[in-house]
């Protein structure tokens, strides 16, 4: 009986110890799982910052801005130089005037140089960029000789859209500062806000002025045109002998003018010579009388 009781007690103690060991192992495994889960959360948090409404909005706006830039057209400034030799300058100039009017262009600058045997028109034209190629084609279809032609194109898309973005950003800041005026706590803070507003307004006006100039250059192409008649064309219109006679007559008349002007310049000497000559004649006459 005592042996049975002792054996039963021994078995009970062994079971209790086994259960305690199992609970300890389960507890350790649970703690390890929790530690691992915490570490994963920490890594995820460090790798990916919390997504806020502001960051989402910024990403969306940035994506929209890039998409808008891709969809917007190129901003190209086109310029050119053209020299035309004409047999009938008046007729050619009239035709160019009509062509400029037809494409809704205008003269930015117009000057004429005229010499003895030549006449030049120096013209600066502004042509709508959409009509620039048509205008050049109309010029080339004429009967006159094109002696020089050069066309340039400059892509300013990056600078153009950058200025537009800057203006939008500065206007946003300007609105914020203007809203802060009513909430200024003291005079110093008010003056600081007003100074920021003034600087932003000046920056916006300056940037808008630059952008307007770019728009004008993009919208209207510039063409510098030199229209002239050559010396040979003028010379062929007159006979060779008649031209020589005119040149000889002109040279003789110029010589007479120079002599007359020179005589006026040395009149004291001429007067002295005349007095000497008259005195010599009187002396000679008086000598004969004796």
UniProtKB/TrEMBL annotation:
<keyword id="KW-0812">Transmembrane</keyword>
<keyword id="KW-1133">Transmembrane helix</keyword>
<feature type="coiled-coil region">
    <location>
        <begin position="174"/>
        <end position="217"/>
    </location>
</feature>
<dbReference type="Pfam" id="PF14257">
    <property type="entry name" value="DUF4349"/>
</dbReference>
<feature type="transmembrane region" description="Helical">
    <location>
        <begin position="259"/>
        <end position="281"/>
    </location>
</feature>
<keyword id="KW-0732">Signal</keyword>
<keyword id="KW-0472">Membrane</keyword>
<feature type="signal peptide">
    <location>
        <begin position="1"/>
        <end position="18"/>
    </location>
</feature>
<dbReference type="InterPro" id="IPR025645">
    <property type="entry name" value="DUF4349"/>
</dbReference>
<protein>
    <submittedName>
        <fullName>Uncharacterized protein DUF4349</fullName>
    </submittedName>
</protein>
<keyword id="KW-0175">Coiled coil</keyword>
<feature type="domain" description="DUF4349">
    <location>
        <begin position="74"/>
        <end position="278"/>
    </location>
</feature>
